[in-house]
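Re: the 225-residue chain
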Amino acid sequence: MKDTKTSDIVLQSIQERIINGEWKPGKKITSETKLAQELNVSRVSVREAIEKLVTLNIVTKKQGGGTYVNDLSPSVYLHSILPMLILDRDNYLEILEFRLIIEPETARLCAQRCDEKIIGELEEIYENMKSFSQDIDKFAEEDLKFHIKISEGAKNSLIIKINNLLKDILEYHQKTIYKSLGPKGGIHDHKLILEAIKNRDSNLALIYSRKHAERTIKELKEIKS
């Protein structure tokens, strides 16, 4: 094996043992020295793989006491899954199609589950969007905050984690889209989504969120054609 690739191979091996239940939450994993012998790799490669897993919150290293598997929630698994996905940030239609699948249901859940604090924050963000209608970059940033806040209101750890992990690419996407389409449609659509959430109308929240994504896709296709 080449050293440039061994840490990823080791990481995959450790993850497989955790996922298949060989190493359960709270269990101490095999020592670095023994893992290096089992996988026929250097101890440095094993250490690098374990450090990545520590960063991803999958395992915890205890000084002088070995490495232990954490109690893994679904959102923790996404830390290791999403970085492996290759997403072309310039493929706007694919990103919008992804959002068309995720965001309407997220808005529906938000209308059902969010507290008044979330609603107040959504109102503040919406007002910021209106005030930044002449500054596309800031408008797009507030737009993204609006959708991330809705994901928080949905109270689903997977949805929250997906939005946070994709935040950078979604922000780039938002700014590019609004430079082409302008803010007017976004202001109109977000007002409807906000009112539906405030009224706890989960069906309307879903419908307006879906229409928002569909309208954006339609207008972008028209520009491209």
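The chain has eleven helices and two strands.
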